[in-house]
Amino acid sequence: MKNEQLYREAIKFAADAEERFLSAVEANKSFKDDRTLCEKHQQMEVIPAAQCACAQQELIAHLFGVSDERIHEDLARVILSR
């Protein structure tokens, strides 16, 4: 693949966004006793974090011409190595 180094840097940024999303999902679980608070947190934190993570992954797929599966594998590898 051309620009392998740029791809690796993009994956690192996307991994940061994925970790923010996973953290927001985990935090949202702590509000399970208060449905209103849970829904508000979902709208303010979880959904925007998900949109950011997905947008970055789609951009990487488009720019570098790689499959979603490869992106997910590379993201998982980066996140697990941290």
Provide a concise account of the structure shown.
The chain has 3 helices and no strands. The chain is mainly alpha-helical. The chain is elongated.
Question: Which short descriptors sum up this protein?
Answer:
mainly alpha, 82 residues, 3 helices, 0% strand
Q: Tell me about the largest β-sheet.
A: none
Q: What do the pLDDT scores average to? A: 95
Q: Please tally the helical runs, counting DSSP H or I stretches of 4 or more residues.
A: 3
Radius of gyration: 15 Å
The stretches of 5 or more residues where confidence is low (pLDDT under 50) are: none
Order of helices and strands: HHH
Helix content: over 70%
Shape: elongated
**Annotation, overall tally of beta strands:** 0
End-to-end C-alpha gap: 25 Å
Proportion of beta-strand residues: under 5%
Secondary structure category: mainly alpha
Describe this structure in words.
The chain has 82 residues and is mostly helical. Helices cover 85% and strands 0% of the residues. It contains 3 helices and no strands. Helix 1 (4-29) runs antiparallel to helix 2 and helix 1 (4-29) packs across helix 3 (68-81). The protein is elongated, with a radius of gyration of 15 Å. The two termini are 25 Å apart. The mean pLDDT is 95.
